[in-house]
């Protein structure tokens, strides 16, 4: 059964809208854990428009499950991860001004850089993951860096699922099978939701973790955070 790591970026977005501390990111994160989530994910961006670097430091002190930090390993991000030492770091090739993540790594072109980053973080005892599209060549490239896991970028699945779930899941099943054969752990995320998560988790072999933020927080407006966390866990079981 895959674990649910809740991405709390959107809680920070809401807090930052007024400049104060409402909602309180640390309290909401603690409550999300209390409601049953098995991890907290953050994706600090260089402009700190939602998660601030200080949030990462504060969360590390209070998270009792697993803290996953995602981002492009630019110098400031690398320094932050070195200081915070999360349980997992997920490398994502975002442009500085990206609205949200929109592609996985080209693990062939960036093999040396990724290997250097993976070696560096692994030497600190941090589990590593590389964000990739469901493309066999990219999965094989990730394995050559020595990374522990891949995170499958699921936006195409989320879009395709609405029209044709079988066609949408196919490349992800193939990528997951290849990853497992290469001894890579498998995470997934981006635009996963209460509508599409069950089909995804039932069809992807050896899925270890999903990180979900945008849809989960939006669904909570109608259904309540505690309820939604438990609905996801049920669909993942
Ligand atoms: C890597 C990934 O898919 C998520 O971390 C996503 O990028 C969330 O970031 P935003 O909340 O800034 O959209
Ligand atoms: N790694 C994906 C993530 O953390 C959440 O992405 P989204 O659910 O906000 O699209």
Automatic annotation (TrEMBL):
Protein's UniProt name: Pyridoxine 5'-phosphate synthase
**What pathway does this protein act in?**
Cofactor biosynthesis; pyridoxine 5'-phosphate biosynthesis; pyridoxine 5'-phosphate from D-erythrose 4-phosphate: step 5/5
From the UniProt record, give one GO term of the biological process aspect: pyridoxine biosynthetic process
Known catalytic reactions:
3-amino-2-oxopropyl phosphate + 1-deoxy-D-xylulose 5-phosphate = pyridoxine 5'-phosphate + phosphate + 2 H2O + H(+)
Give the active-site positions: 43 (proton acceptor), 70 (proton acceptor), 190 (proton donor)
Question: What is the annotated quaternary arrangement, including any partners?
Answer: Homooctamer; tetramer of dimers.
Question: Which Enzyme Commission number(s) are listed?
Answer: 2.6.99.2
Locate the site labelled Transition state stabilizer. Answer: 151
């Amino acid at each position: 059964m895959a674990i649910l790591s809740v991405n709390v970026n959107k809680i920070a977005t809401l807090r930052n809208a007024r400049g104060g501390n409402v909602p309180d990111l640390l309290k909401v994160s603690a409550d999300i854990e209390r409601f049953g989530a098995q991890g907290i994910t953050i994706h600090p961006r260089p402009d700190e428009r939602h998660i601030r670097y200080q949030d990462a430091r504060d969360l590390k002190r209070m998270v009792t499950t697993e803290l996953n930090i995602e981002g492009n390993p630019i110098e400031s991000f690398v320094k932050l991860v070195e200081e915070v030492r999360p349980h997992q770091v997920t490398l994502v090739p975002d442009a500085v001004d990206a609205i949200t993540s929109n592609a996985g790594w080209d693990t062939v072109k960036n093999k040396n850089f990724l290997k250097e980053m993976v070696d560096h973080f692994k030497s600190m005892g941090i589990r590593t993951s590389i964000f990739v599209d469901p493309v066999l060549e990219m999965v094989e490239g990730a394995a050559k860096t020595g990374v522990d896991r891949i995170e499958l970028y699921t936006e195409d699945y989320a879009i395709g699922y609405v029209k044709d779930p079988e066609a949408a899941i196919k490349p992800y099943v193939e990528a997951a099978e290849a990853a497992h054969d290469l001894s890579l752990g498998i995470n997934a995320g981006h635009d996963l939701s209460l509508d599409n998560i069950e089909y995804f988790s039932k069809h992807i072999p050896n899925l270890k973790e999903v990180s979900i933020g945008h849809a989960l927080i939006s669904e909570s407006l109608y259904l309540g955070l505690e309820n939604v966390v438990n609905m996801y866990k049920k669909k993942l079981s």
